[in-house]
Amino acid sequence: VKIWLRGGPAEIALTTPVPTPVVFTTYTNMDCGVSLNYPVDFTREEATNAARLTSTISKESIDIACAKTVPKPPLPKEKISETTVASISATVYHDASAKDGSPRDVVVFTHPKKQLEVAVFGFGEVFQNILSSLKLL
């Protein structure tokens, strides 16, 4: 690219930034009977039957919880769909954050061995990657 400076033209090189690949680590929750991969830039807070994964960059968070029965959002049928997670059927509740109204999905399935409901809360590309990496233990 040529640009004109006082005294004549000068050439500069423009570079396109190369995106840094996302590096993942594994989280395992034996109580819920699941493992999944999440980005290493996320912090992890754990409880016996729950965890919160939060991005140190975007503050995006993903929550995982399990119990005999997980409370489901009271939503109309058009905001509820079906999907498959770890080769089993799951229900997706297309909800919104009570705090700021941002979209938030809740994916709920019953663990076939543990007989517990597992819920994963989040939204976006990282959330979808986490769901696709989820394995039953």
Keywords:
137 residues; mainly beta; seven-stranded antiparallel β-sheet; single chain
Task: Give a quick precis of the structure.
7% of the residues lie in helices and 51% in strands. It is globular. With 137 residues, it is mostly beta strands.
What topology does this entry show?
Layout: E1 2-5, E2 8-11, E3 24-29, E4 34-39, E5 42-47, E6 50-55, E7 61-67, E8 80-85, E9 88-96, E10 103-110, E11 117-122, H1 125-133, E12 135-136
Structure characterization notes:
With 137 residues, this protein is mostly beta strands. Helices cover 7% and strands 51% of the residues. It contains one helix and twelve strands, in the order βββββββββββαβ. The strands form three sheets. Strands 5-6-7-11-10-9-8 form a seven-stranded antiparallel β-sheet, with helices on one face. It has a three-stranded antiparallel β-sheet with strand order 3-4-12. It starts with a strand and ends with a strand.
Strand line-up across the major sheet: 5-6-7-11-10-9-8
Shape: globular
Radius of gyration using CA atoms only: 21 Å
Residue share in helices?
A: under 10%
Number of helices: 1
Class computed from helices, strands and strand pairing: mainly beta
Oligomeric state of this protein:
single chain
Distance between the termini: 56 Å
Low-confidence stretches: none
What share of residues are in beta strands? over 45%
Order of helices and strands: EEEEEEEEEEEHE
Largest sheet: 7 strands, antiparallel
User: What average pLDDT do the residues reach?
Assistant: 88
Would you report the number of β strands? 12
